[in-house]
Hints:
- The structure is a single chain.
- The protein is an alpha/beta fold and 259 residues long.
- It has a single domain, classed as NAD(P)-binding Rossmann-like Domain (Rossmann fold, 3-Layer(aba) Sandwich).
- It contains ten helices and seven strands.
- It has helices at 7-11, 26-37, 49-61, 76-85, 87-90, 113-141, 162-182, 203-206, 209-217, 231-238, and strands spanning 17-21, 41-46, 66-70, 95-98, 144-149, 187-194, 249-252.
- Strands 3-2-1-4-5-6-7 form a seven-stranded parallel β-sheet, with helices on both faces.
- Helix 6 packs parallel to helix 7.
- The radius of gyration is 17 Å and the shape is globular.
- The relative contact order is 0.15.
- Residues 16-195 form the Ketoreductase domain.
- This is Gluconate 5-dehydrogenase.
- Pfam families: adh_short_C2 (PF13561).
Amino acid sequence: MTGQSSLGDLFSLEGRTAVVTGGSSGIGRAIATALANAGAAVVVLARGRQALDATVTDLTDAGCRAAAVVGDLSTRAGIRSACDDVVEPFGEPDVVVSSAGINLRPPMAEIDEAVWDATMTVNLEAPFWLGQRFGPGMAERGYGRLIHVSSQQAHRAFVTSGAYGVSKGGLESLARSQAEAWSPHGVTANTLVPGFVLTPLNRRLQDDPARVAALADRTLVGRNGLPADFAGPAVFLASAASSYVTGQSIHVDGGFSVH
Length: 259
Ligand SMILES: NC(=O)c1ccc[n+]([C@@H]2O[C@H](COP(=O)([O-])OP(=O)(O)OC[C@H]3O[C@@H](n4cnc5c(N)ncnc54)[C@H](OP(=O)(O)O)[C@@H]3O)[C@@H](O)[C@H]2O)c1
């Protein structure tokens, strides 16, 4: 690349294909929308057909290329099927965003095998196996982007972090391992770290307006996060603009983590 690159050279995703797990809701949906608007053909994957179809309809109505794949990332068999199914619409992905996540929040002493297994499988194993499936091909083609969505709970305990915080800590380590393996071949791996974002995931916490206001006060920007706050950072990480950024945890939290 020469010294002067056009905005398009840096940020366009024209000709790229992307898979966004959890792309039917919240942060994942905003990221899928941003990548599609930047020119990528986007596959959104989740369990619920209705929200997937609504997302794809919105994207295709806006002139974007998008497809839905129903998949359940809570078992290894489900992850394997998902890996096979997501290549059907547009072929091998150049960008894989792992936004699907669950936060079950039982008290620490009540975490049983079912909670541990589901949390680790959706939040940590699925991004790992997706990387195993698609990372080597990206490296062979010389371009790839693995983008994970972690949590402030990878860095601090917050509202019964339990297994969830552990899974997110592992996820940021996974990005570093993937970065070490594949960055020499044009494949970067990075993590977006949200603070408190108003999505269905934490609807229960949003029932307490005083709590929501207190969390907003803890940011430097003065408000809680919105899914759209992840659009720009995701396009940056998916595009050529971020070629020299790898293994990083990028906090998209209005300054929550530094306050
Ligand atoms: N909201 C926050 O404050 C916050 C803070 C820190 C980190 N995060 C992280 O951000 C990511 C996105 O969260 P969000 O707030 O946008 O949550 P959300 O609105 O609840 O979206 C979660 C998405 O994951 C999908 N999903 C859940 N379980 C799945 C499974 N077993 N297989 C496949 N897809 C599954 C959901 O669709 P289906 O239910 O239809 O499968 C949905 O599309 C998560 O990794 C979360 O941990 C969020």
